[in-house]
């Protein structure tokens, strides 16, 4: 029987090791540095890491993760008593969150049914109203999140449209979604879970008009998540690589050694050609119309969790849970 091997570790607590180096005695620092070098060498050699010798060296000193010290303790008296959306608005407008930190950045997670396969991507919060959090995107894709949410059917090349709210449209999609906001500078996080519902076309039009023309053209041009090109492998500079466009053809080219040389065709030209086609289509059109497959989606919350960091990982967590028309507030264990 082959010897059991643990999964190879490509990264092993680099942040903890660096923190330890700054606070430990010189002898301990050199020991940990040696252990780190051994871990890297083992990873490069393709062996399972860390070795028992490496583990002994690392575990001889306790790892110290980042300590959260920015905020005072978070107590129930600081939380909005009845509404998590108002609590979120208060945190979102914290003067310590500068515009350059892009606090509107969040992670949207959805899951495809019936497989249950989850995917997540970064999006931007554009609106928060009394009903929930609103993001905008292409939802007609049969390869991306549109299929997950609406269970879209039809030919792969066909771009669909977003169902209108309350249209009575039934689908095999999964309307459950989650948003996560992470604000490292203030050591806070917000998790929102609930049901996704499309905005009306009229509501989406309002935001669409605020987008610059180039972004509107881009929305029309993009077949979101459609494969434009693929290859089985990428070799070293100077080696040949097999690959081809999405249509099934193939090409063989040499990977350039210099970034100033013409690169291998990798499907970008397909997208750029689409952009040119859309620019020609809307040439002379002052107001580019809203694509039927593009628009807003509102996450109507069922639960909202507010997390604030505390030393020794004893974080403060409060969760609002919807009960009919009211919200119950819970303190959660870290």
UniProtKB/TrEMBL annotation:
Needed co-factor(s): FMN
A Pfam family of this chain: PNP_phzG_C
EC number: 1.4.3.5
Pathway recorded for this protein: Cofactor metabolism; pyridoxal 5'-phosphate salvage; pyridoxal 5'-phosphate from pyridoxine 5'-phosphate: step 1/1; Cofactor metabolism; pyridoxal 5'-phosphate salvage; pyridoxal 5'-phosphate from pyridoxamine 5'-phosphate: step 1/1
Region entry Disordered, spans: 234-254
Single GO biological process annotation from the record: pyridoxine biosynthetic process
InterPro entries on file: Pyridox_Oxase, Pyridox_Oxase_CS, Pyridoxamine_oxidase_dimer_C, Split_barrel_FMN-bd
Keywords: Flavoprotein, FMN, Oxidoreductase
Transmembrane stretches, start-end: none
Record keyword Flavoprotein present: yes
Gene3D superfamilies: Electron Transport, Fmn-binding Protein, Chain A
Molecular function, one GO term: pyridoxamine phosphate oxidase activity
Principal EC category: oxidoreductase
Domain of life: Eukaryota
Annotated Pyridoxine 5'-phosphate oxidase dimerisation C-terminal domain residues: 294-334
Xref: PANTHER family: PYRIDOXINE-5'-PHOSPHATE OXIDASE, PYRIDOXINE-5-PHOSPHATE OXIDASE
Annotated protein name in UniProt: pyridoxal 5'-phosphate synthase
Highest classification ranks of the organism: Eukaryota, Fungi, Dikarya, Ascomycota, Pezizomycotina
